[in-house]
C-alpha cells in the first residue's frame, strides 16, 4: 500500500483512462481509440457548454453492475436533453471492447472484492452543425475510493440555494438529468476539501432538508426497536437525482423484509441515525464519519451488508 | 444574401472557428493550433464536468470591444471557481495571434459595421492530475446573429425554478460565475425554438420577476414624458450575471443624461415598454418583437443608438 493511503488526500489525481471507445457519430460502430490522445474539438458543445449527459458505473471482475439501470437513466437524461443515445447493444459492445483493451482493474487492499474498474458513458451534442457523439472510458478504481470505503468520509452540509423540487415540471431546467454541467457539484467538493472535510451534502436553504451528496445519494439507518434497521433516504421525487445505488440497496432491503422510508431528512436525523452513508456506483456505500465536524454513528457490519446488496451477494 | 436569411433558422450551425490558440498550461506562451484538429482529452474536466469558465467577445475591424470588462469578469469567474487565469497580456497576445491567422470577419448585410468576429476565451480545469489550460477561438459572426439584429427575435418567458438571488453568498454555487456548465441555458433556447420562438428569457417561478435571457441581458426603455428614454434592466445584484453590454449601454446613457433604473421588472413592464432588447457582446442590442406570442413595441432609432453606445460611436 502506498504511503498515506490510510488518509484520503483532499484532491488526488484519478488514474487516467486505461481504454476508450468512441461512438461517433451515434449509430456508428464503437471504435477503440488511444485514451491518451486528444479526440475532442475546442468547439465541442460538451466542452463549451457542458451540453451532454453521462453515467458512471462499476465493473467488478469484468461484470458491469446495474448496467440496465444506468442505461435507463442515461436514456432519460438524453431524452430530456433532446440528445440521441446509442443503443444498449452499442454500449455493451463498446464496454466489452474497452474492457478487453484495458489493463487489470485495481483491487481494494482492505476488502478485496475483485478487480475493479470505473466506467464512464457520456454523450455530447458535438460541434455545432455536426452530429452528437458518445464515448466510453474505462479506468482502474482510484485508491482514494478504496480509502474512503475503509475510513469513511467527513462531510459538510452546504445550502443548495433553492429547493430542486421547484425545478420539477420545468423541462428546460433539465430536472433529473445527469448533465455534463457539473461545475457546481465540483465546486461543492472543493469547498468541502478547503474546509477540512472530504465531501459535501446539499440541503435546502430554507428548512435545511437533506437533499443529496455532491456526487452521491445519502442513505441512513435507524434502529427503532433494536431488530432490523429501517433505511432512509431523502424523497427522490423532490428534485434529487434518483440514485441507482440507493435504489438497489432499498430493493434488496425490502426483499429482506426491512422497512425503507423516504424522508424528509434533516441534519438531526443524521446525528440520530445508527449509520449514514454516501452511496454511488463505484464508491458503493461509504460511511459518513462526521457531519460539519460532529461525529455520526457508524455500523461496519451494516456497511458490509449494504455492499453485499450492491454487489448482489448473499448477505453476510 | 443567402436564401432564407431574412428569417433566422431555429438552430443553424455556427461557422467553425477560423483560428484557435492554446495557452496550455496556463502561463505557457500562446500557441496557434489548427482549429479543425482535436486538442482536448476525453478526460478533460471542462468536458466531463463542465468545469471551467468562459467569455464571449466581439471584434470589429480587428478591435476587441470591452476587452477589459471581459477580462475582469473572467478573472472573477476563475477566482470564484478556484482556477488560474492567463494574464491580460497573454490573452492580448493570444487574440492578436488568432486574429492574424483568422480569415476576414463577416459583414452584417443590413448594417455594415465592419468586419466582425466572435471571440471566445475559455479556461478548463484540465485532465485530473494535470494542469488547467486556456484557449481562444476566433470565428466570423454567424449570419443568424445578423438576421436577429435586423428582424428582432420572439421570446418565451421560462420559469427559472428558483430565484438566483438565493445563491448569493454561497460560493460553492458559483454565483455570478460564467461557467462552462451551460446545459440549462442551451435547453432553454431549444425549448424556445421548439415552441415557435427564437430565444428564452428567465423569470422567477414565484412572482414572475424578469431575470435575464438564456445567453443575454434584458434591457428595456420607457418614455415617461416623451423626452429622453429611461433604460431599465433587472437588478444585477439579484443573482443575474452582470452583463458587460448592459453595463456599457447604461454608462453611455448616463453620460448622455438619460435616466437608468434597475428593476424589478415584470412581464407587464415589457409589454408597457417603448422597446425591449436582448443585449450581449456579439449580438449587440437585438430588439424583442414579441413575448409569449404577444407583440412588444420596438424603436429602430433607439436600437441604433444603443448599438452606437456599444461600439463607442457618436450617437446617430
Describe the structure.
The structure is a homodimer of 316-residue chains. Chain A has helices at residues 45-48, 67-80, 88-101, 143-151, 183-194, 244-255, 267-272, 300-311, and strands at residues 19-23, 31-33, 52-60, 63-64, 116-124, 133-140, 153-159, 199-203, 210-213, 217-222, 230-233, 259-262, 275-280, 284-291, 294-295. Chain A is an alpha+beta fold and 316 residues long. Chain A has two domains: 19-141, 2-Layer Sandwich (D-amino Acid Aminotransferase, Chain A, domain 1); 152-311, D-amino Acid Aminotransferase, Chain A, domain 2 (Alpha-Beta Barrel), CATH 3.20.10. In chain A, the strands form two sheets. In chain A, strands 7, 8, 9, 10, 11, 12, 13, 14 and 15 form a nine-stranded mixed beta sheet that branches. A six-stranded antiparallel beta sheet of chain A has the order 2-1-6-5-3-4. Chain A starts with 18 loop residues before the first strand and ends in a 5-residue tail after the last helix. Residues 1-13 of chain A have low confidence and may be disordered. The interface between A and B is large, with 67 and 67 residues.
Task: Using brief descriptors, characterize the structure shown.
homodimer; 316 residues; alpha+beta; D-amino Acid Aminotransferase, Chain A, domain 1; D-amino Acid Aminotransferase, Chain A, domain 2; nine-stranded mixed sheet; six-stranded antiparallel sheet; disordered N terminus
